Amino acid sequence: MNYDQILENARQNMGGRCLVCKDCNGLACRGKLPGPGGKGSGSSFMRNYQKLQELKINMDLVYHKSPINTQTELFGKTFEYPFFAAPISAVKLHYFDYYDDEGYSKAVVNGCKASGVIGFTGDGEHKECYTMGISAVKSAGGWGIPTIKPWAVEDVIQKIKTAEEAGAPAVAMDIDAAGLPVMAKDKNIGAKSVEDLRRIAESTRLPFILKGVMTAEGAEKALAAGIYGIVVSNHGGRVLDHTPATVEVLPDIVKAVGGRMKILIDGGIRSGIDVFKALALGADGVLIGRPYAIAAYGGGEEAVAMYTESIGAELRQTMIMTGCQSLSDIDSSVLWNK
Ligand SMILES: Cc1cc2nc3c(=O)[nH]c(=O)nc-3n(C[C@H](O)[C@H](O)[C@H](O)COP(=O)(O)O)c2cc1C
């Protein structure tokens, strides 16, 4: 299986919902929701992508050569690379009936496991979205991170118990999900106070990750609630039109809470170079969404593992070209004019 075949298969298996564009930048699918696109004008998705492209890297080959190490430690586990598959669910609604949420989650979670990273699983309007993800995590021996919608606090705590039972190393909640058109109709979904977040975080021994933080103030509130980490995310531009790009807000968030909690980021990350740029701006790790879905639809877990390896190889090559031997060498000095 080569990558061109994977893309061709994905085009077929996604039934035209995702066009598998050469550049996955939100242009062709703007407003396609249900579907893989960004909300409204699609500007939040497109800006995530565009602002990453605008960052440029300083090249430097004058250094003492030694082996490159791309490994990182998060949630008490060691990973080959600092990037992970983002949670994607309700796949029949957004893509096509080639997979249900269990088949999709299994392809992602197992492919990630085979290539030394980890996959997140999602949640949705129907309870099966979550339980099918949990079942994939369980069958991978706990190698996956369930992501729960912001239901009522007691319901979130209940769902966290099933993540614990599945053996997950961490659990997440996408607090921004109230902006999804299908979820907005549900009155049980919505914002959480610092006290709510503290109750949720204290209900579990697992590291709790809050996904969908876009301001330094939001990050400080998450820190005050005792949360392990955040994902700087606008849900791939699917919850609110006209947000800044995630890489635009990342530096302020790092300034506010960096070193005191883990900071992950997603939105428009498409290459190992993009992963490198996010780390240079201070992220501890990165999630990649739609391209992992394309890999899963194009060739199941084997393609997911191949995709991970290709992004990892680009990251390693970027480190060689910039004199960064380990991830801790990647800081803002590698970015031009920053
Ligand atoms: C079809 C689709 C379904 C998604 N489902 C979920 C979900 O269930 N939970 C969640 O936290 N995020 C969900 N997301 C958002 C992703 O986790 C991630 O934040 C986003 O896709 C990152 O941007 P990228 O796709 O540009 O890399 C979904 C995204 C897409 C495209």
Automatic annotation (TrEMBL):
UniProt-listed Gene3D superfamilies: Aldolase class I
The keyword Flavoprotein appears for this protein: yes
Family matches, as PROSITE patterns: FMN_HYDROXY_ACID_DH_2
Signal is among the record's keywords: no
Reactions listed under catalytic activity: (S)-lactate + O2 = pyruvate + H2O2
Residue ranges of domain FMN hydroxy acid dehydrogenase in the record: 37-338
Cofactor dependency: FMN
Pfam families named in the record: FMN_dh
Domain of life: Bacteria
Keywords: Flavoprotein, FMN, Oxidoreductase
PANTHER family given in the database record: 2-HYDROXYACID OXIDASE 1, S -2-HYDROXY-ACID OXIDASE-RELATED
Family assignment from sequence similarity: Belongs to the FMN-dependent alpha-hydroxy acid dehydrogenase family.
Name recorded for this polypeptide: L-lactate oxidase
Natural source organism: Lutispora saccharofermentans
